[in-house]
Amino acid sequence: xxxxxxxxxxxxxxxxxxxxxxxxxxxxxxxxxxxxxxxxxxxxxxxxxxxxxxxxxxxxxxxxxxxxxxxxxxxxxxxxxxxxxxxxxxxxxxxxxxxxxxxxxxxxxxxxxxxxxxxxxxxxxxxxxxxxxxxxxxxxxxxxxxxxxxxxxxxxxxxxxxxxxxxxxxxxxxxxxxxxxxxxxxxxxxxx
Length: 192
Known about the structure:
Residues 5-174 form the DUF5753 domain. The chain is α/β, with parallel strands linked by helices.
């Protein structure tokens, strides 16, 4: 496993609280295996021979979610991530259902809301200083300085104010699932 993935897994394992915001994808800690694989394949950045080890690493990181003393998690997911036509309808339905039933707290940021444009995660580590993590296709950055942590906290305060509440978010996800199922009744369509 590359050092950056090892560091990420270690940070997740030490966290007492994880607050996450994703714009274009479901959060890695709650991705289905097929969804994760399709992200790597569709991105065409990783060498094809490396994709399976990255998928396995992502699935292994999810063990933190099954621990008895797992971290408290709050996932903000921008509606754009739900609208992304990644893979087939079954892949998207499975991912929506994972988000609907297998997360701590999920809040959807409506499509019309402009917020931070890249993924951001704030890890609370108990007695240690909080850590902020952000990534894009070219770089992953861990920051522990007070400015980065304060910015992340402001981002999550803004998201708390504009995101759908937990019940509304579940209803919105259910709409996406039922939309896929309705579309599957029409031959030749695969719409989200």
